[in-house]
Design a protein that fits this description.
The chain is of the alpha+beta class. The protein contains one helix and four strands, in the order ββββα. It has one helix at about 60-70, and strands spanning about 5-15, 25-30, 35-45, 55.
């Protein structure tokens, strides 16, 4: 696997924590020294390991927010 760099710019929300201590979070992350994007994935307690996740531009996150706001949850 190719090496890559990442820097968490901002922790925006912790969504859950599993039994192993990994937390699912919404963060702002800079990948390979590029502009930060919004990201949802699980992180180890020390943020040295990560799961596969989803990365969004600001516009994609706005569209997702708008779609979620239309859903009626119980």
């Amino acid at each position: 696997m190719a090496d890559f760099k990442f820097e968490i710019q901002e922790h925006l929300a912790q969504l859950s924590t599993n039994a192993k201590g990994w937390s699912k979070e919404l963060t702002s992350v800079s990948w390979n020294e590029r502009d930060a994007k919004y990201d949802i994935r699980e992180w180890s307690e020390d943020y040295s390991k990560m799961s596969k996740g989803l990365t969004f531009t600001a516009e994609e996150l706005r569209l997702l927010r708008d779609a979620l706001n239309k859903i009626e949850l119980d």
